[in-house]
Amino acid sequence: MILTLILVSLLTIFVYIKSRYNFWSSHGFPSAKAKFLIGNLDGVGRSKNTAQKLKEIYDEFQEKEDFVGIYLLISPAILILKPEIIRLVLVKDFSNFSDRGMYYNKKDDPLSANLLTMRVEEWKPMRTKITPTFSTAKIKTMFDIVSNITDNLVDKLSTSDVSGTNITETIAAYSTDVISNIAFGISSNCLADPNSEIRKYSKLIFAMSPRRLMKFFISSQFPKFAAALGFTSTNKIASDYFMKLYGSIRQFQCH
Fold it and tell me: Which prosthetic group or cofactor does it need (predicted)?
């Protein structure tokens, strides 16, 4: 009896997922051929990144279609191929395309709630708050900061053995230095000290494990179910560290 229930459940899940891959064809739209469970993300994370995979689809369809339907795992999405349509989405018809469709959990995982993920009703007030940050004077200050850190990067690369340099880690350290200086006003100095505290916790944000990959799959494909279970997308240790850091900075600014 139990075995029968398991088999029926697995068959139901299989049929449901397969039916998801008929979304675009059932609506009469062109679509890229998807693979079971991974959709059009085959190879991503192993031999290529997401941008490279999307470029492959773009090259295949851009001369014959204005847009093409794709599948991010089992969720349907659109890859727009013409600049004039992109302009419509971002400007004239933005009100119809304002939500990113990305999972976030403001209550249990505050770092996941940001401009990239928030729904429009929360995104608009936050955008209004941070708009003054991008005034001409402040951008000039940011440019000077980025320029100085870039000089540090050039110095590091020019004095390092290129064959023995982990370029991925070096650029990640550079990015961490830029973000920590601009966002927090902290000189993290990760290029000079790869073991700096802020770099250590930054790594945790992007570290992947089978458990985290499974949580990502569930939260991205079934966001309501994930929200009901209180799923988080950020490493808790890293989240606690950066929220504490942010709180300390706010407290310092108030005084």
Answer: heme
